[in-house]
Design goal:
Helices cover 38% and strands 16% of the residues. The chain is α/β, with parallel strands linked by helices. Strand 1 and strand 2 form a beta hairpin. Helix 3 packs parallel to helix 9 and helix 6 packs parallel to helix 7. It starts with a helix and ends with a helix.
Length: 427
């Protein structure tokens, strides 16, 4: 089947023709690109066209597509059985690697980041006897009911449902504050610290585009949670094992940590971990229920172990930083040459090109970006064989499989596409 045939059949099968909304290309005015193969830094569509890939399955593929050691580990594991519903050695192997690298005492594997954050909040509520959870505007922590909320007006707003089907009573248990605003955080804890069970945060925001944290904000997060008895939950689903081998290091006092993406080697995974005193509240050790038929799946554990073993000596991270810095510099130069009102932000191997002159510090500023210009830019890059995430508010992922030649090719495409996006006409 070619691209058109696949899209036509998908339209009849799936809501919006996709199984995850961001794949729809709706925000950039395009149509989904059906991909049939990946190799290294490239993906191939059903029409046989090749693209340099900066989506990387939205984060897991830090080693690139079809990394040989990961593929072989999956093949071996599949030959021994795809699921058991029982404890397996693979869970112990990957679990040990993660707790050692991340400095955790206990870990539980689940099947997605959504499951990890949902369970972490349940633990926090059980541990504190409180109900309210604080999140930050523009930070995404999965699609569980209590986290699908948005901010209204004012410094701190109790949650309003951001999705149909979420009861107001559930959304109202979530408060939303502006990211990077230490003063708003202090004001919240002065008025409602005694009712706050948890604060959940991305150490580096990656779902409003890439927005790095300010030091005062990180300090306030840790000090205020500690003083009030609230549980600080670090959502490192994107940043864990992406910025370095282990956690980001930005929130060392987090009570619970949520992981995913990289630790699954490209297969579906989530995990939460932390101190034994909190984690042992989980059943069967404690009263907080959580379960999953395929949690700790042997194929996932094998893939994750192979991926982490390839990353453990740290050399890949040095290489990733070098490649991403090359791309950042190329983008900065292209922005200057084109005169486009844009800015580039990087943290390790994560980047976002914002269509606003200065990098944003929170979601309110990120939303000032010219999304129509980004849509033109995305289409222009795709036409030049560069696959970017189809949203102004997603990050680009550089993999260890990228080379200088691919970065250089991307740089040439950037210059032309930025000119096209800024002028509204093909270059």
């Amino acid at each position: 089947m070619n691209n058109d045939a696949i899209r036509e059949r998908a339209t009849a099968l799936f809501p919006g023709a996709v199984n995850s909304p961001v794949r729809s290309f709706r925000s950039v005015g395009g149509t989904p690109v059906p991909l049939v193969r990946g190799e290294g830094a490239h993906v191939y569509d059903a029409d046989g066209r090749r693209y340099v890939d900066y989506v990387g399955a939205f984060g897991p593929l830090i080693l690139g597509h079809a990394y040989p050691a990961v593929v072989e580990a999956i093949r071996r594991a599949a030959g021994e059985g795809t699921a058991f519903g029982a404890l397996t050695p693979g869970e112990v192997e990957l679990g040990q690697r993660v707790v050692d690298a991340a400095g955790l005492e206990r870990i539980r594997f689940v099947n997605s980041g959504t499951e990890a954050t949902m369970t972490a909040i349940r633990i926090a509520r059980a541990a504190t006897g409180r109900d309210v959870v604080v999140k930050f505007d523009g930070c995404y922590h999965g699609h569980s009911d209590g986290l699908l909320v948005k901010a209204g007006s004012g410094v701190a707003t109790m949650g309003l449902s951001d999705s149909a089907g979420v009861p107001e009573a559930i959304a109202a248990k979530t408060a939303v504050l502006p990211y990077n605003d230490a003063r708003a955080l202090h004001a919240w804890f002065e008025s409602a610290g005694a009712t706050t069970a948890a604060v959940i945060v991305e150490p580096v925001a990656g779902n409003m585009g890439l927005v790095p944290p300010e030091p005062a904000f990180l300090t306030a997060l840790q000090e205020l949670c500690s003083a009030s008895g609230a549980v600080l939950i670090a959502d490192e689903v994107i940043t864990g094992f992406r910025l370095r081998y282990g956690l980001s290091g930005l929130l060392p006092d987090a009570g619970l940590v949520c992981l995913g993406k990289v630790i699954g080697g490209g297969l579906p995974v989530g995990a939460l971990g932390g101190k034994a005193a909190l984690m042992d509240l989980l059943a069967p050790a404690g009263p907080v229920y959580q379960a999953g038929t395929l949690s700790g799946n042997p194929l996932v554990m094998a893939a994750g172990t192979a991926a982490l073993d390839a990353l453990a000596d740290g050399r890949a991270y040095a290489r990733l930083d070098q490649l991403a810095a090359h791309l950042e510099n190329a983008a900065r130069a292209a922005i200057k040459r084109s005169g486009a009102p844009a800015s580039i932000v990087r943290a390790g191997s994560l980047l976002t090109l914002f269509f606003r002159p200065e990098p944003p510090r929170d979601f309110a500023e990120a939303k000032e970006s010219d999304t129509a210009a980004f849509a033109r830019f995305h289409r222009a890059m795709l036409a030049r064989g560069v696959m970017l995430p189809p949203s102004q508010y997603e990050v680009w992922f550089v993999s260890a499989a990228h080379t200088e030649a691919e970065i250089d090719a991307t740089a040439r495409a950037l210059h032309e596409a930025l000119h096209e996006a800024a002028s509204g006409a093909p270059s």
